[in-house]
């Protein structure tokens, strides 16, 4: 599905949140690879589960055609600096919900990009009969957890010792959800 682009200006950085288009595929592949190497907050290490340009073209095409998927990008200085996806489920019993994921280049943290990708996704979900948004977040990512709570997400569960990070320790994954009744 597509949304109307929105422009934001925070701390003198002008950026647009818009739907992903096929010509974004190469940039998305590069940005995802870079982000995976910049933080342990995400599931992948750099290079794992790599999606190439043609893979992103297919995801964008599928998401654009699906009424229960949304693929957004944040573009600043004519380059993609972050993106988010809401992925629905084709099974009828789960058709009321989507799973949300977001990532932003470390250089662009602090400009509200993740927050605005989240807000636009929530607005889209609320206006498209989607009742529930779910997400997973690393227990140490306090900033993200506080942001999600601010937008109505609640902790639904904890996946104990779910991830092993570079320090050799195991960490919990926090499962959160936002239900609009």
Automatic annotation (TrEMBL):
Keyword Membrane found: no
Any GO MF annotation of the entry: acyltransferase activity, transferring groups other than amino-acyl groups
Keyword Transferase carried by entry: yes
Domain N-acetyltransferase: 15-181
InterPro entries: Acyl_CoA_acyltransferase (IPR016181), GNAT_dom (IPR000182)
PROSITE patterns, A to Z: GNAT
Keywords (A to Z) from UniProt: Transferase
Protein name, entry field: N-acetyltransferase GCN5
Gene3D superfamilies the UniProt entry points to: 3.40.630.30
């Amino acid at each position: 599905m597509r949304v109307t682009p929105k422009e934001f200006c925070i701390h003198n950085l002008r950026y647009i949140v818009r739907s992903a288009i096929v010509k974004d595929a190469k940039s998305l592949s590069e940005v995802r690879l870079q982000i995976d190497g910049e933080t342990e907050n995400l599931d992948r290490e750099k290079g794992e589960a790599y999606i190439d340009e043609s893979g992103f073209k297919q995801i964008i095409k599928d998401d654009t055609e699906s009424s229960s998927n949304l693929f957004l990008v944040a573009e600043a200085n004519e380059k993609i600096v972050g993106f988010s996806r809401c992925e629905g489920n084709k099974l009828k019993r789960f058709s009321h919900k989507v799973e949300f994921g977001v990532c932003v280049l470390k250089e662009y943290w602090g400009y509200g990009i993740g927050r605005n990708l989240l807000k636009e996704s929530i607005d889209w979900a609320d206006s498209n009969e989607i009742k529930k948004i779910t997400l997973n977040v690393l227990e140490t990512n306090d900033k993200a957890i506080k942001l999600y709570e601010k937008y109505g997400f609640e902790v639904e569960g904890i996946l104990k010792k779910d991830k092993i990070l570079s320090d050799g320790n195991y960490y919990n994954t926090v499962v959160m959800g936002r239900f609009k009744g």
